[in-house]
């Protein structure tokens, strides 16, 4: 009788342990739902965007519906991870909370992310986005971010609000290219004009078919500037400098077209017009049209064009 009772207790203990283990496993994984962003998921689980990206080896902020994301067990249960879970008693360990920042603004530098900046100043990603009118997590080098709702920045600084054509005047260049640089730009524009009407082809970089970044690769190489093949985001974050007074041949970048963040680009040809590879093929569009003006991020120029 006693043996039977012991076996019954052992069986119940095993079932309970298995159930708890299952709960823990479920808590450590999150399935992406429609409308989710890394920022939203991070906030809900009391972790940072960078944490989630590190745990899941994500190279960017892009996620998709039904994607399985690993979430730290400590993150779902505690706001502070014990240094030694086997010896530390969480009930007696009180985390120290840094005081809110007294800084007025932050200028984005290479390597910054909203998560990193939020940690640095002890604020949340949502607060930074609200204070600066940001709708996505994309930020740019030289961007000036307000760090409170009462913050203000000088007229020489610009808070980027989804990117505007005049944004970043404190970090861009106002110089025109040299004679050689302008010659490259002119030939590049001529090449771009010559392929207007070319059908759209994802990954295409020849007159047989072009996508938006493929047009850049083809036109500039034919125009005399040897560049590698990148995506729009790659060109934006690569060897390019923002310009305050764009001229024909400069690059124009857009965000939130078919995906969040930098997602489209074209070649500016003056008078608010640009050539780009749209879904209907290579065409000329106007940056002042509402669709483009609300998505315009910046004008930039390849550093190699002096």
**In the CATH hierarchy, what is the superfamily of the largest domain?**
endopeptidase domain like (from Nostoc punctiforme)
Alpha carbon gyration radius: 25 Å
Distance separating the two termini: 92 Å
The number of E-state strands comes to 12
Q: Give, in order, the helices and strands.
A: HEHHEHEHHEHEEHHEEEEEHE
Overall geometry comes to globular
Number of domains: 3
CATH class of the largest domain: Alpha Beta
What is the level-2 CATH architecture name of the largest domain?
Alpha-Beta Complex
* Helical run tally: 10
Largest sheet: 6 strands, antiparallel
Which structural class fits the helix and strand makeup? alpha+beta
Strand content range: 15-25%
Low-confidence stretches: 19-27, 73-98, 154-170
Strand order of the largest sheet: 7-12-8-9-10-11
Overall mean pLDDT = 77
The CATH topology of the largest domain turns out to be endopeptidase fold (from Nostoc punctiforme)
Helix % is 25-40%
Keywords: Hydrolase, Protease, Repeat, Signal, Thiol protease
Domain NlpC/P60: 182-303
Organism: Lysinibacillus xylanilyticus
Biased composition (Polar residues): 175-184
Write up this protein.
The chain is α+β, with helices and mostly antiparallel strands and 306 residues long. It folds into three domains: 2-92, Membrane-bound Lytic Murein Transglycosylase D, Chain A; 98-161, Membrane-bound Lytic Murein Transglycosylase D, Chain A, CATH 3.10.350; 179-302, Alpha-Beta Complex (endopeptidase fold (from Nostoc punctiforme)), CATH 3.90.1720. The protein is 32% helix and 17% strand. It is built from ten helices and twelve strands. The strands form four sheets. Strands 7-12-8-9-10-11 form a six-stranded antiparallel sheet. A two-stranded antiparallel ribbon has the order 1-2. The protein is globular. Residues 19-27, 73-98 and 154-170 have low confidence and may be disordered.
